[in-house]
C-alpha cells in the first residue's frame, strides 16, 4: 500500500498512487435520470444547452451535489466540437445525433475544417466557472474518439451495424484516414479547450469501437486515437480511454497512450486487467441494466466489481456504460455510499 496522498482519490487512482479508497463517478451522471436536470433543460435543446455556460455549470454540478461522486464530468456532447467546426447536425431526443449531410466521399471529407480553441468560447467559460465552484473535486473533460465520431458522420445518425462506416474504412483507406485525421484534430482541440481552462483529467469515448475486429482496429483506428491522446499528453492530466464491447480490443487499446482503460460489463475487471498486462488503472464496470434490480442484488454486484478491480494497479468504480434515463437516483446514491464505505475493506480482503 502506498502512502495516502493529498490529491483527490480519483486523480491518485488514475496515477496508480491510491491507497485502498475506491473513487467512483458515473458515465452520464448528469442527465435525464435526475429530476433537477429535466427541470432546468425544459424547453432548451441539447445543443443550445451546451452553449450556455451557467446552465452547463449547474447541470454538471447536479450529480456532484446529489451523489457525492469523486469527479464531475463536463456537461456537453461529443458532437459539440463537430458543430463548432461547421458540420450541420442536431441531437434528437430519444434518437441521438443526426447529420444533415452525411460524409461519404473525399469531397465530403474535405469540407471538414480544423477547429481552434477560440471557436469554443462557451466551453472555456463553462469550465472556468465550474472549476471555481468544484473546489477539490476534479473535473473530467471528454471528447469522442475518431471512430465513434466518424460512425455518426458517415451513417448520418445512430447505427446498429456501422455498415457504411466500415465499407468506407476498408474500401477507401485514404479517404478514411483523411477523415479520421481531421476528427483527431477536432477532438484534440475540444480536449485542449477543457484542459487549458482547468479540467484535471480527460476521457476519450470510443463508444462504438467494439464493433471492429482487432486487425481493423489496429490498422484503421488505433493510430488516430493514439494521436488524440498524444496531443493531450503535454498537459500531464490523466487520460481515460473507454469503449463498449472492447474485450477483444483491450490489449491494443492499452497501447493507445491512456493511463486508465474503461471497461464495459461483458468482461470482469480482473480479466480485463490481465489482458492489459496489469499496466493500467481500470474504470468500470457494473452493468447499467442491473440498476433496476432489488438493492441486495445491486449491492452484491457492486461488491463483486470492487473485488475484481483489486487485481488492477488502480480501480475507479463506474458503470460499464452510461446511466440509463429511467434510473432511480436513490440507487446511484446507495452505490456511491457502498463503494466509499466498503470499498477499502473489500480491496484489502482480496489483496
Ligand atoms: C455516443 C455519445 C454521444 N454523446 C456522448 C457519447 C459517448 C458516451 C456514451 O457512449 O454514452 C458523450 C456525452 N453526452 C453527454 C455527456 C455529458 C456528461 C455526462 O456523462 O454526464 C457525455 C460525456 C450529455 C448528453 N448527450 C445526450 C444526452 C441526452 C439528451 C437529453 O437530455 O435531451 C445527454 C445528457 C444526447 C446524446 N448524445 C449522443 C447520444 C447517443 C445521445 C442520446 C440520445 C437520446 O437518448 O436522447 C452521442
Could you please describe the fold and organization of this structure?
It is a single chain. This protein is α/β, with parallel strands linked by helices and 351 residues long. It has a single domain (22-350), classed as TIM Barrel (Alpha-Beta Barrel), CATH 3.20.20.210. Helix content is 48%, strand content 11%. The protein has helices at residues 9-14, 35-41, 46-50, 53-67, 80-84, 106-110, 121-134, 146-155, 163-171, 173-196, 214-233, 250-254, 269-275, 295-309, 329-350, and strands at 72-73, 89-92, 96-99, 139-144, 201-205, 239-242, 260-262, 281-286, 315-319. It has a seven-stranded parallel beta sheet with strand order 1-4-5-6-7-8-9. Strands 2-3 form a two-stranded antiparallel ribbon. β5 (201-205), α11 and β6 form a beta-alpha-beta unit. The longest helix has 24 residues, at 173-196. The radius of gyration is 19 Å and the shape is globular. Bound molecules: coproporphyrinogen III (CP3).
Amino acid at each position: 500500500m502506498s502512502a495516502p496522498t493529498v490529491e483527490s482519490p480519483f486523480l491518485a487512482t488514475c496515477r496508480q498512487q491510491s491507497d485502498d479508497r475506491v473513487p467512483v463517478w458515473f458515465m452520464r451522471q448528469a442527465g435525464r435520470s435526475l429530476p433537477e436536470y429535466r427541470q432546468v433543460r425544459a424547453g432548451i435543446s441539447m445543443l443550445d444547452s451546451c452553449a450556455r455556460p451557467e446552465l452547463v455549470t449547474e447541470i454538471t454540478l447536479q450529480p456532484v451535489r446529489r451523489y457525492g461522486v469523486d469527479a464531475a464530468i463536463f456537461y456537453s456532447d461529443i458532437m459539440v466540437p463537430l458543430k463548432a467546426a461547421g458540420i450541420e447536425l442536431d441531437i434528437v431526443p430519444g434518437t441521438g445525433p443526426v447529420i444533415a449531410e452525411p460524409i461519404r466521399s473525399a469531397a465530403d471529407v474535405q469540407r471538414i475544417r480544423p477547429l481552434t480553441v477560440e471557436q469554443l468560447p462557451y466551453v472555456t467559460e463553462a469550465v472556468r466557472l465550474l472549476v471555481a465552484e468544484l473546489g477539490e473535486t476534479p473535473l473530467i473533460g471528454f471528447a469522442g474518439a475518431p471512430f465513434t465520431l466518424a460512425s455518426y458522420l458517415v451513417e448520418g445518425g445512430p447505427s446498429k451495424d456501422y455498415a457504411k462506416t466500415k465499407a468506407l474504412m476498408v474500401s477507401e483507406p485514404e479517404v478514411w484516414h483523411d477523415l479520421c485525421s481531421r476528427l483527431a484534430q477536432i477532438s484534440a482541440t475540444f480536449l485542449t479547450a477543457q484542459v487549458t481552462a482547468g479540467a484535471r483529467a480527460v476521457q476519450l469515448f470510443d463508444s462504438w469501437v467494439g464493433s471492429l475486429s482487432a486487425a481493423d482496429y489496429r490498422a484503421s483506428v488505433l493510430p488516430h486515437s493514439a494521436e488524440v491522446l498524444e496531443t493531450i499528453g503535454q498537459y500531464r492530466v490523466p487520460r481515460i480511454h473507454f469503449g463498449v464491447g472492447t474485450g477483444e480490443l483491450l490489449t491494443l487499446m492499452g497501447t493507445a497512450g491512456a493511463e486508465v482503460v474503461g471497461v464495459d460489463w461483458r468482461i470482469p475487471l480482473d480479466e480485463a486487467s490481465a489482458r492489459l498486462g496489469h499496466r493500467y488503472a481500470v474504470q468500470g464496470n457494473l452493468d447499467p441494466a442491473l440498476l433496476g434490480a432489488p438493492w441486495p442484488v445491486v449491492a452484491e454486484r457492486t461488491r463483486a466489481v470492487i473485488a475484481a478491480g483489486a487485481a488492477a494497479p488502480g480501480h475507479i468504480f463506474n458503470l460499464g456504460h452510461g446511466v440509463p434515463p429511467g434510473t432511480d437516483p436513490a440507487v446511484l446514491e446507495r452505490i456511491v455510499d457502498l463503494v466509499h464505505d466498503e470499498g477499502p475493506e473489500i480491496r484489502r480482503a482480496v489483496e
